[in-house]
Amino acid sequence: xxxxxxxxxxxxxxxxxxxxxxxxxxxxxxxxxxxxxxxxxxxxxxxxxxxxxxxxxxxxxxxxxxxxxxxxxxxxxxxxxxxxxxxxxxxxxxxxxxxxxxxxxxxxxxxxxxxxxxxxxxxxxxxxxxxxxxxxxxxxxxxxxxxxxxxxxxxxxxxxxxxxxxxxxxxxxxxxxxxxxxxxxxxxxxxxxxxxx
Length: 197
Prior knowledge:
The protein has helices at 2-15, 19-31, 34-62, 65-84, 96-114, 118-129, 133-157, 164-196. With 197 residues, the chain is an all-alpha fold. The chain has one domain (2-196). Helix 1 runs parallel beside helix 7 (133-157) and helix 4 runs antiparallel to helix 8. The termini are far apart.
């Protein structure tokens, strides 16, 4: 059971204060439907961590660390722009798009936000360390839920009092800063490689 509990603890601790908690708060305030958001987090995390555990080392071999960091910077910039776009779903409860809106938005946003994140890297390393692939993936997923579900529930209950525009702008700014930081890291990798050559 160590292959379950250690990944759970590592990911739960790593996620505290992470960008995905901010994303969970924004989604909870925007949609005010916690269960589709929680389900979206679950499915996105399972898919992301499964891919990380199964294909992480193979993908890392295809690109240089600098290229991977540039891709990460582009992903953060895309999420920053997406965060600024207000929700325009119809208020009709019978509308199928609205029924699936929070789930699909959460699924895409969380999957993208976890690309190249420290918990994805941790999942790759933990899957390599333990000979219990399924337990590692379940553990990292439970850790993600432990860190983000309370944020979704709190954000849902406090949504009436939250300044949604301010939250959207702050989230976009945070993702923008992450994009700039990743771009700086990629540029630094290139400068170091050039100086060494």
